[in-house]
Amino acid sequence: MNSKTLTNIFKGDKVVWMIFFFLCLISIVEVFSASSQLMYKGGNYLSPIMKHIGILVVGFVCMVMTLNVPCRYFKVLTPFLLVIAFISLVYVLFAGESVNGSQRWVSLIGIQFQPSEIAKGTMILATAQILSAMQTTNGADRNAFKYILIVSAFIIPPIFLENFSTAALLSSVILMMMIIGRVPMNQIGKLMGIVALVGIIAFVGVMTLGHVKPEDPNKNLTEQVVQQQEEESKGLFASAFHRADTWKARIMKFTNNKPVPPDSVDLDKDAQVAHSNIAVATSNIVGKGPGNSVERDFLSQAFSDFIYAIIIEEMGIEGAFFVALLYIILLFRTGRIANRCENNFPALLAMGLALLLVTQALFNMCVAVGLAPVTGQPLPLISKGGTSTIINCVYLGAILSVSRTAKKKPESSEENSSAVVAI
User: Fold this and answer.
1) Model pTM?
2) Could you identify which of 8, 128, 272, 400 might form a hypothetical disulfide with 12, taking C-beta atoms 3.0 to 4.6 angstroms apart as the criterion?
3) Which residues pair with 136 in a beta bridge?
4) Nearest to residue 233, comparing CAs of 113, 382, 111, 101?
5) 3-state SS, residue 75
6) Helix (H, G, I), strand (E, B), or coil: what is residue 229?
């Protein structure tokens, strides 16, 4: 393959491409190391990692296809994606496949996907389009705020019913986009006040309605799981609020600051948090080396939600800092790409997608080191995943499309600009 062919494939910002390949390399090494449970259950040493590599290859192909689409055409997809996202989010509440106590998956022609993953990107796309279309010399028109809330009302509440952390993540990114898009601060202030009030009411509701049931020692794990499934299948109304029990349990665990002696830790009840803490504590700063993790054999979802703990255990503080630095560089590099755009839509779209990826990564890292309650958010482009990994690659492809096809500001205007997004 000659250099011209490579240039035609790897279009767009080279720094974003470098970050992508570093994340993929780390992902392959750490997922291979952390997938010991899957290898044992499947009886095949290479099957889990080969499947993961295959997904990364599919993601790479989707990324290349996306970056070759001029960013102005993304606007055409917005109404269709909004309809698809809303229908799939409602459908998953009624007929979705339950995983870990929540109905988050939909199967279509043999392919499983989470509607919330599509909804996140769709909401970013719609917000960028609204903000860009309603810009004035004094910032965003006041009606832009109203239109964003209307669209959000169809997307975020259905996500909230089954996945609070994803809804909170998406809401945070939309808020940051409105700040970047110069929505009047008095409107944002009122929204924050309402959100705070609703949050207090929701917290009281969860702590009141949620039940943390003690486990019956006379029942084995299979019997407990069957009982949980029976309770969750009592009806739509009951299932819509069954997550309150999970939320309350996570809040109570996170806010319980009472020191627990090592010999009193219940590794069956608090296995994820306990083994994650052990992985971090036993890294000895420098790490044990790739492939030498011990906690991967005991930590549930070591290859997904808690892969950052395995990274710390194997690669030490330096390796963990390097992974975090990659996401920070992605955010700042995207900010530079957005700052060069002459038009508002590609700049806001690129920043929204970068904020989505980086904020989710920070959430995952905070959970792994005990700074946030367990949320179930994977580490983008590193955790073992299926359609979520492919969709994250599409997000990066959209950022590369902006860097390649968006109309650039004149150099003199670019040098005098100090904002991340030129409005």
Assistant:
1) 0.82
2) 400
3) 139
4) 101
5) helix
6) helix
